[in-house]
Write a structure and sequence with these properties.
single chain; about 450 residues; alpha/beta; five-stranded antiparallel β-sheet; 13 helices; 18 strands
Length: about 450
């Protein structure tokens, strides 16, 4: 429990006011108009819950930003960070250090194929930046292809690779990025009527894009293994293997972005296992430490690692493989192994979240589609199930976004913290969420969705 739990109400209110005042004066928040936001002051967290200074507890169906895969404040990970801090807080990245080497070994053991070398970064966007740099240097080619419905981070190259609207304010059209349409059967850009048609036509479109851009100019294709921010887009069965084949045919590096879905989120250590696809480079972050200390990285194939065996890699980071972060990674991976967290995530999806969310869809006309894997799901919310008109327009704000804002408020009032993106309600609780908390969350969702139903045709 948090330190403020036993304090008098007036004292807790004073602390909350001080926290919010300092936040308002000095913290510049991402993706926000600073004077139009009112951040919740969080007093503490444990497991699948966090709470504020007024004693309101929230069941976290967002896993913060889809990274608290083992929940908040796991004692073994907290203890590992404390123990490492007492031994060695930091050391330059050029040294060999036991905890860094162990973190790399544990990650490499779980990645697909021959991704046995790990380049550590501070977070996911830097992983994407370095993966693209490696691909370009390895191939000697400039262009990178990415999907329109995607999010790859907010640094320079990563935001240009991103396909969603967050790119608009940052896109200079000078990053060597070419966007293409990936498969999304519910809103098919290819007028497909089945998943098989969607897969076939999406692959044909990608092949045409490669041909007309010139294969000899394309260094890499980057894809989220399961599309995260765009709405938990689970690719049709043959799509990722088809992309792998296109890359092999044209000498293109395949980069899989597993930043959001790695480390158990979809019920596998890495989502690529669902389709038995082996990338050349794999980007990770978030769940590798459950977000306790920032850490990301790139897992590198033998062929690309060989490129830099006698040729210096022109990139690096001051905090690459920071020892506190690596200690958190080692502890997190060991906890997930010991406690069967990956398997639990798979069971929760198959036995609880999947069936429960589909049952909600039967009761609520605002739910157009349910999709997901493991502890990673999305509800596609619509005004009209027949026409599939989104509940709010693309990139809606202000009054246009009112239905989703009302839904979010109803969920928070019910004690559930949501993850809302566009017209979608994402469901991403900790991978080790207890069954009774899944049931509680589904009940809150059931009640709150009546708010969205009120906006349907």
């Amino acid at each position: 429990m948090n330190a403020e739990a036993g304090a008098p109400a007036a004292a807790k209110t004073a602390v909350k006011d001080a926290v919010k005042d300092a936040d308002r004066k000095h913290v510049f928040h991402s993706w926000s108009a600073q004077e139009l936001i009112d951040p919740l002051a969080v007093a503490g967290a444990q497991g699948s819950y966090f709470w504020d200074y007024d004693g309101n507890r929230y069941l976290d169906f967002s896993s913060a930003l889809v990274y608290t895969n083992i929940g908040y404040q796991h004692p073994k990970v907290a203890a590992a960070i404390q123990e490492q801090a007492a031994t060695l807080c930091t050391v330059a990245p050029g040294f060999a250090v036991d905890v860094r080497s162990e973190a790399a070994r544990l990650i490499a053991e779980r990645t697909p194929g021959d991704l046995d070398k790990i380049f550590f970064t501070n977070a996911g966007a830097e992983a994407v930046e370095n993966a693209v740099r490696m691909a370009r240097l390895h191939t000697g080619r400039p262009k990178v292809l990415s999907a329109y419905r995607s999010y790859h981070g907010a640094t320079s190259t990563a935001i240009n690779l991103t396909g969603d609207a967050r790119r608009f304010g940052n896109d200079t059209a000078t990053a060597g990025v070419v966007h293409f349409w990936g498969p999304f059967a519910y809103r098919s850009p290819f007028y497909a009527t089945t998943e098989a048609e969607e897969c076939e036509r999406a692959l044909r479109h990608l092949e045409d894009t490669i041909v007309f851009e010139g294969p000899q100019s394309i260094a890499a294709i980057i894809l989220e293994t399961v599309g995260g921010a765009p709405g938990v887009l689970v690719h049709p069965a043959g799509y990722l293997p088809g992309v792998r084949e296109l890359c092999d045919r044209h000498g293109i590096v395949l980069i899989l972005d597993e930043i959001m879905v790695g480390f158990g989120r979809t019920g596998k250590w890495f989502a690529s296992e669902h389709w038995d696809v082996r990338p050349d480079l794999l980007c990770f972050a978030k769940g590798v430490t459950s977000g306790y200390v920032p850490l990301g990285g790139v897992a590198i194939s033998a062929a690309i690692a060989e490129t830099f065996a006698r040729r210096p890699y022109p990139g690096g980071l001051t905090y690459s493989g920071h020892v506190l972060a690596c200690a958190a990674a080692v502890a997190t991976i060991n906890v997930m192994e010991e406690e069967g967290t990956v398997e639990q995530s798979a069971r929760t999806g198959a036995e609880l979240l999947g069936p429960g969310l589909r049952a909600l869809a039967q009761r609520h006309p605002s739910v157009g589609e349910v999709r997901g894997l493991g502890t990673f799901w999305a509800l596609e919310l619509v005004r009209d199930a027949a026409t599939r008109e989104p509940l709010v327009p693309y990139n809606a704000s202000g009054a246009d976004n009112a239905p989703m804002a009302e839904l979010g408020a109803a969920l928070k009032k019910g004690g559930l913290w949501p993850l809302i993106a566009g017209n979608r309600l994402h469901v991403a609780p900790p991978c080790n969420i207890a069954p009774e908390d899944v049931a509680k969350g589904l009940a809150i969702l059931d009640e709150a969705l009546s708010v969205a139903d009120a906006h349907t045709a």
